[in-house]
Request: fold
Amino acid sequence: MIDHTGLVVSDLSKSRRFYDAIAKPLGLATRDIGKESFLLGRGPAEPIPYLWIGTLRPSYWAAGSRPGLNQTHVAFVARDKAAVDDFYWKALAAGGRDNGKPGPRQGVSSYYAAFVLDPDGNNIEACARDV
Reply:
């Protein structure tokens, strides 16, 4: 189980547009926490787990790190195939790039997923299991 994770991005407004677009199909919401970052999660009633997204440079970064240098992969749970499809199309409309159209995945039974690259090249997935 994930408590939280984070992504450093180069353009907060582009990233906010992208994550605002994919939040609803996944039953999530975004929330401002400052000028340089926001959170993506289930909401105030269930604050954990969350994804922190911002432009601040983390203290734990190794020398030479920058947004998009090491592709991050985050898979979000979707309630069904329709939510995966909705996630995919809204992500593309909000500036995401295709990295795997919605569909079943080989080698994993009852697994339906879609993959998009966010504005910084992070691999963002929505998946529905047992479908």
User: Anything to note?
Assistant: The beta strands are 4-8, 29-34, 37-41, 50-54, 73-77, 97-104, 111-117, 123-129. Residues 75 and 125 are 4 Å apart (CA to CA). The mean pLDDT is 89.
